[in-house]
């Protein structure tokens, strides 16, 4: 993972784009921002949104998958050996 992937995420409802919540790789700017790219590649306009939009807009599936890929390893954890006693696992 790059250091860019380690930073905070902010979810923003994109009324003018597609009516879904998208993830951006930064904290919420205090006074808004210029257009930014979401994890899915969509260009988001920082239009103000209502609390209703926060609650009702579905999450962008591509952004969600991007977040999962950032936080879940691509390989499974190694399982304990079956022949070891439980206290040694």
From TrEMBL:
Sample GO molecular function, one term: zinc ion binding
Keywords of the record: Metal-binding, Zinc, Zinc-finger
Name of a matching Pfam family: zf-HC3
InterPro entries registered for this protein in UniProt: Zf-HC3
Domain of life according to the entry: Bacteria
UniProt protein name: Zinc-finger
Lineage of the organism: Bacteria, Bacillati, Actinomycetota, Actinomycetes, Actinopolysporales
């Amino acid at each position: 993972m790059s250091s860019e992937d380690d930073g905070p995420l902010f979810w923003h409802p994109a009324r003018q784009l597609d009516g879904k919540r998208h993830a951006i790789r930064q904290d919420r700017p205090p006074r808004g921002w210029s257009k930014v790219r979401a994890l899915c590649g969509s260009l988001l306009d920082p239009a103000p949104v209502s609390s209703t939009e926060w609650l009702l807009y579905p999450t962008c599936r591509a952004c969600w998958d991007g977040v999962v890929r950032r936080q879940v390893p691509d390989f499974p954890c190694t399982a304990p050996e079956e022949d070891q006693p439980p206290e040694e696992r």
